[in-house]
Every structure is written in structure tokens, then in C-alpha cells.
């Protein structure tokens, strides 16, 4: 997965080092080019949220591949308004 500027921005603002590097590597290793940008952003954001809420990176990454619908629900990004929920959780920089 190629991380979008939105996701890399969230990582930079919200995730402290060294966890940021480990999380970015885990996210980059997910999926292939078949996922849309919006879908990839949604899943990457869900992983970030769950990791920040204390789920181990390895577990969140595994769930992103296997139980991704549960991952979206657990993170609060499971509904059609996921983009608004993401913006509320991680407002863009001023």
C-alpha cells in the first residue's frame, strides 16, 4: 500500500517515534495496488486509530488483512460517514 499524504500527515502529527516508523512500515506492507485510495486510506486510518488505542501493531495489521470489516467498526470508521469521523478524530493542520 502506498500511503497517501493524508495518512502520512496523520502519522507525523499523531504517532510518536519509534512507533511511527514501525507503523508506517506495517501499513506500507499491506495489500497491493488493487485497493482504491479511499479504501486504502480508510483501512490505514483504522489501523492507526486502533494502534493509538493500544492495539499492538502486529495485531492491527493482521486484522486489516483478515477481519477488515471488524477493524473498521472497532475504529469508528465502519459507517458511510467514515471520512467525517476521520476528520473529527484527526483534524487537518490549520
User: How is the main sheet built?
Assistant: none
Q: How many DSSP helices? A: 6
Please estimate the helix content.
55-70%
How large is the share of residues in beta strands? under 5%
- Write down how many β-strands occur, each being a DSSP E stretch of 2 or more residues: 0
Inertia-based shape:
globular
Distance between the termini: 27 Å
* Overall number of structural domains: 1
Report the mean per-residue pLDDT as an integer. Answer: 90
Order of helices and strands: HHHHHH
Class by helix and strand content?
mainly alpha
Low-confidence stretches: none
Radius of gyration: 12 Å
Labels describing this entry:
mainly alpha, 6 helices, globular
Describe the protein.
This protein has one domain. It has 94 residues and is an all-alpha fold. It is globular and about 30 Å long. The protein has helices spanning 5-14, 19-28, 37-52, 57-65, 68-75, 82-89. The N and C termini lie far apart (27 Å). The longest helix is centred in the middle third of the chain and has 16 residues, at 37-52. Helix 1 (5-14) packs parallel to helix 3 (37-52).
Short recap of the structure:
This protein has 94 residues and is an all-alpha fold. 65% of the residues lie in helices and 0% in strands.
